[in-house]
Design goal:
357 residues; alpha/beta; 3-stranded mixed beta sheet; 12 strands
Length: 357
Amino acid sequence: MLQVGIVGLPNVGKSTLFQTLTKKQVDCANFPFCTIEPNIGVVEVPDERIDTLSKITSSEKVIPTAIEFVDIAGLVKGAHKGEGLGNKFLANIREVDMIVHVVRDFVDENVHHVDGTIDPARDVEIIEIELAMADIGTVDKRLNLVRGKLKSGKTKELEMQSGALEKIFEALEQGKMANTIELTDDEELLLSDMSLLTRKPILYVVNVAEDASMTDWKSPLGPERLAMPISIKLESEIMDMDGEEQKMFLSELGLEKSGLDRLITKCYELLDLITYFTSGEKETRAWTIARGTKAPQAAGKIHTDFEKGFIRAEVIAYDDFVAAGGESGARDVGKLRVEGKEYVMVDGDVCHFRVST
């Protein structure tokens, strides 16, 4: 399961966000470093399609797709040098697939800020510098190793790796994130084992006051950073309401979805994931795959033997499945397609795989 790491300075709302996301109680005490070991929770990806499918097929069970969130302890200035237990926490970030960077933009005299004042742009730069400095050390070490090998004999692979590392090193020294540098697929593959912190997709969550507008909001982080406003305190209160209360409350705010649902969906999109479904009387289930996955590999998500014994996929587009009232109706109107090993899966495909045992 893919992991999303929640990072930020101490006391910005990371652990409260995690607790609200996962409904898992963690220590949210109002002091720095209350989170030392990373808390991990599995979060359901909101998708109304799965409920629609389960009603059509009268499924006994519904199993949604999910993402794993990791609550990583607060970083501070100097973390790359080990300040505030920084080395350990940076290692935790290196293991995740994507970063949600929580930034504080609310005033509360009862919640201490480590720098004494509220300044989202400053706080973001503190964390980004720490991540970049950690990456500079990693890239420099690998670059020296590659250059040493090049002295013994040049190869196309070593030269390509050296060139990619030099591009990233130069960008990091200029204060840029590694994810701003374009690399070829081959270069990406050569550097994939480095797990660079600033190469990961980053979504900035600006933790705003409860009365802040969500519809008429301007990011304090500039246009180059993908950011979204969430009042984490308000979201925590919404999660304590029942389903109907939540809908009414969100409607009064002029919102279709909660901030948490929008956050989870955006993470799913940034990780470039799509969903396909299997649906029948026994269960309706959502399966997560990377965009561009072919049918045999998608079948392998259900069971590894399915990929090995793949024969064909019987595929119905979600809209066609719903319009026809299920598989039988879709078959009758010619909307069921038979696809082979080269078929690239599409988000919303409803599938039945034929495999040899």
